[in-house]
Hints:
about 675 residues, alpha/beta, Alpha-Beta Plaits, six-stranded mixed sheet, six-stranded parallel sheet, about 20% strand
Amino acid sequence: MKQKLKLKGKLQTFVHATLLLGLLLAVVDVWIYTIDVKAGIVLSGFVLFYLLMSLLLVSFKKNILMNELISFATQYGQIQKKLLRDLELPSALLDENGKVIWTNRLFEETIQKAKGYNKDIRSVFPAISKEKLPKENGEVAEVSFSYDEKEFTAKMRRIPLAGMVENSDIFESEERYEGFLVALYLFDETALQLALRENDNQSLCVGLLYIDNYEEALESVEEVRRSLLMALIERKLNKYFASYDGIVKKMEKDKFFVIIRKQSLRRLKDNRFDLLEDVKTVNIGNDMSVTLSMGIGSDGMTYAQNYEFARTSIDLALGRGGDQVVIKSPEGVSYFGGKSQQMEKNTRVKARVKALALKEIITAKDKVIVMGHSNSDVDSFGAAVGIYRIAKTLGRNAYIVVNNVDNTIQPWVEAFSDRLDKDETVIVNNAQAVELADNNTVLVVVDVNRPSYTECPELIKYCRSIVVLDHHRQGEETFENATLSYVEPYASSACEMVAEILQYVEDGIKVRTVEADCMYAGIVVDTGSFVAKAGVRTFEAAAFLRRSGADVTRVRKMFREDANDYRAKADAVSQAKIYMDEYAISVCTSEGVSSPTVVGAQAANELLNIVGIKASFVLTDYNDTVYISARSIDELNVQVVMEKLGGGGHINVAGAQMKDVSVEEACERLKATLKEMKEQGEL
């Protein structure tokens, strides 16, 4: 070892200094000779003696010097080891694979292991896997975990073995060492995490609470008792939130402002906001139960941001039909409630206001492009035809985006196209629509409120004026900066909404017979021949279309099915299995079927006729995507079930699309979702 080790740096210079001084004296001696030869001879003798003694000291005393240096280095290392051993920070050294090779006293006390513990670090801290170790020199890897009811953060740094010798001020070696060690330090952050959690628990959440059916509920009770009804509701609200250490402030007759701590919000979540059901028990003779909607903003950077979250949440809750709570935070949106049927609004004031706004928007532009959702159905196409009639009445050209004309809408598309002027082109594909779009174009989206579900999503960025008309409940994905948004979940269909608007756009508007047929057919499809979601306004819209020339017999003939479609629907119904004694689940084939998704939806409607079935689900594998059609009558909100699977829809009509999965896998995910929601009380 002594032969391999050499002195270097300042210590090497110090040891060789005597020889260097001897050489300097020799040079001086030569100069002395030029002055005095005798003095030069005397000095030469002294120089020779000095050099001889220096060489003897360097040669024969080197081993003694090296021994002393090694002894000092050893003692110096022992001091360092003692300091590290007693360091008031839990520390350890790991090898390349995470095995413990050294620990200090405090680390041993922390993990409650004796000195010499040499097992894998994962045996103590499973969170510190080999993949979590630092990958490069200089990198500091951090891992947070809980251990023995405490919160720790582990910081790890690589120590190259080669650097231990190369960076030494005393020794050098010709050999290069490979590999590395990992220095591990534990930081106890229990107190910090407790303080952060307590601070988080005490942070304030902002809520906006609206009474959904304020006017309708008051009208259902005697006038002298209306003030009593509202007093009872307000008392229940104040008492409920007071039990959660919250504050309720009435802003308007049917609107309240709520402040509550985040800790209490967690308790409300655990109780699944039982206020929604509790307020329905207020009854002093009113025929209609009171329902609430609430939007809550949480975890915002400021109180103002929480308030904006609350505003967005309440709009989302109302757009989804009310009787529910929506909580928005930077991490996402969560929903609670929404089990009751949406109450239909008898007044058509909103429809008239929206009709006038739509008229102003269309008249300000040169042309109108209308599109529905992908894989257009009769309701989507019928609503588009209605918007086309509005545009033509206002003297604007209109185009309808339809890419795939399947057997479901083919009869309606052909009938509509046959009545057009010979030189008029209305039905266009995506490429043609994008080419037509410019700054003077109004894009009207019907029967869908999610941009990604539209027939041509890229068309949205080419149009500045966007109008959305839909009857589906809103989800997290919405159109941003829409010029006009008219989303009414209570409506039976998009055709019903467009039929109402038609009556207010222009006095005495003339609707062609084939156009009335298309819209009437859309209402028939979405209501199941006026069985589901058919309210007073649905029949009023149908009556308007009948007066405009819609023929029931002609529409029925157009709905006649292909034999293969009818057979596929019958097979799906016959092969249905009952899950958890309440849910009918079946699979509809797509082979030889013109419109598999439509047939699947029809099969789901048929399964509701089975006694004891609360909801039906039919899965269809079509174009590498599994489509799920979900239906219910009034006992289950299938929308919340489909939202768990990435879809959405109405409380009793919903669906979802699942890519890159088989029908069997989709069926298992559906069953697991139903079971989980049932156990958690969400259904």
